[in-house]
Amino acid sequence: MENDSRNKLEKLKEEYHNIPVPASARENIMAGIEKAKKEKRMRIVIQFTKKTGLTAAAALLAITVMANVSPTTANAMENIPVLGTIAKVVTFRTFEDTKDNYEAKIDIPQVSIGDQANTEVNKSIEEYANQLIAEYEKEVTEDVAGEGHYSVTSNYQVVTDNDKYLSLRINTTVIMASGADYVKIFTIDKATGQVVTLKDLFRNKADYIQALSDNIKEQMRAQMAADDSKMYFFESGEEAAEDFNQITGDESFYFNENGELVLVFDEYTVAPGYMGVVEFTIPKSVTGDIG
């Protein structure tokens, strides 16, 4: 009797588990599970922020760093709401070569922002790297006697990653008889996925070149007056051809943590070589709130 009851109970359980679930109900169940996972991830971020005393901006920075370090983390973070567009920068390839007194190591990055392909941006980055490679190979090829010296090192860093822009800075050092540092910055509009120029930023301000140039001159004067070791190619009194007069509009730039525009000049461009690469932070009173 007891065995019959147990068998009936097992049969009823089996019939219950075999009841078909409508497709619409299954979709609702899966959507609920996915929603719960997202909410759990958000709670983890919020709890982490509270426990560590991080500000929201600092928490976002930490998450962005994690996204660039781990592809798995990046894929998970892309599903978290309100955090904004996740930008990822990875080394696409590295050109390395060593021949006698010649040496090259050029890291070539690739950018992806959200679900955009960013094909044009990455093509521009690779074209810039290919110019460096071509110049190196030209030096090697032309040195028939094998007595030359040439070294090129190029790497990159993310200097801006805010709600609006991603700025990828390419730092290159070329050493021949002496060394020279060069900087190329690709600032990308996250909304469009396109590289932006100073002209794009100031499309509604016709006199931006004069306004930015005047501010840079003011900074040059102030720095030279405060520090005898500072020197710029500016107001030499000899009307020298290399004296800085105004920007060209093609300068590299990025935005600092305060959203201020920073213009970057290559070594020897506006100052002697010992000054290295120089930067000028332009106050928002001149630029307006563009960063």
Automatic annotation (TrEMBL):
Transmembrane segments: none annotated. Residues 199-285 form the DUF3298 domain. Pfam families: DUF3298 (PF11738), PdaC (PF13739). InterPro entries: DUF3298 (IPR021729), PdaC (IPR025303), PdaC/RsiV-like_sf (IPR037126). Residues 97-172 form the Deacetylase PdaC domain. This is Uncharacterized protein DUF4163.
